[in-house]
Design brief:
By secondary structure, this protein is mainly beta. The chain has one domain: Sandwich (Jelly Rolls). The protein is built from 2 helices and 13 strands. Strand 1 and strand 2 form a beta hairpin. Bound molecules: N-(carboxycarbonyl)-S-(naphthalen-2-ylmethyl)-L-cysteine (MD3) and fe (iii) ion.
Length: 212
């Protein structure tokens, strides 16, 4: 597996439009995890159902003006948590600042996401190859932040069925996906048993999106 300089904080272009900012979120990890805890107290992690009726192994919640949901009727962004009928918890200022700073470092100035999808992985959870195309602003990047147990990112290129590259994502890594990389097929391999001092056996991923 390609291991991308785990302790290097410099921007590394992965592919046109995709940029790894290794460890960028490291200094903020405890504060980010505390924000996640508070968000989940209002809008608990839940296993959404795919349109095909399967329970997702990754548990999800959201912060911000819009949240991503999936059910029998499809994938979409909603201003309210379907579990409570209430607005999603507000985007914490630290989330917005980190997303904006990361996008700027990758060459996307003025990124102002109103949606943050929060994924929680337990050992055995995985995310099969997919494209993120439910956002209205496909010209805007997606910023992802990894926390906790290391995962293997699956990188499938611009078409389904091609060769898949495997890339390690570590605690604190931030990746910006824009331009020609925005519609890359991607996923996360089955999360192995692991132990991280801040999250135990869990992995969290934040994705920031300009959705609406
Ligand atoms: C490449 N999340 O929430 S983050 C997702 O680690 C998602 O939980 C994964 O895929 C996770 O949709 C991967 C990396 C990522 C996120 C969005 C992308 C890569 C992307 C959008 C376009 C291209
Ligand atoms: Fe995705």
């Amino acid at each position: 597996m390609l291991d991308l300089f785990p302790d290097d904080r410099k921007a590394l272009p992965l592919d046109p439009g995709a940029c790894l900012l290794g460890g960028l979120a490291l200094p903020f990890a405890p504060a980010l995890l505390e924000d996640i805890r508070q968000i989940a107290a209002q809008a608990p992690f839940r296993h959404l159902e795919t349109p095909g009726g399967k329970r997702m192994s990754v548990a999800m919640t959201n912060a911000g003006g819009l949240g991503w949901v999936s059910d029998r009727f499809g994938y979409r962004y909603e201003p309210r948590d379907p579990l409570s009928g209430q607005a999603w918890p507000a985007m914490p200022p630290l989330f917005a600042q980190l997303a904006r700073e990361a996008a700027e470092q990758a060459g996307f100035a003025g990124f102002a996401p109103e949606a943050c999808l929060i994924n929680r992985y337990t050992p055995g959870s995985r995310l099969t190859l997919h494209q993120d195309r439910d956002e209205r602003h496909l010209d805007q990047p997606i910023v992802s932040v990894s926390l906790g147990v290391d995962a293997t990112f699956l990188w499938g290129g611009q078409a389904r069925g091609g060769r898949v590259k495997r890339i390690a994502l570590h605690h604190g890594d931030v990746v910006v996906w824009g331009g020609p990389a925005r519609l890359t097929y991607h996923g996360i391999d089955v999360l192995p048993e692991g132990l991280h001092p801040l999250t135990g056996d869990l992995r969290y991923n934040l994705t920031f999106r300009q959705a609406g």
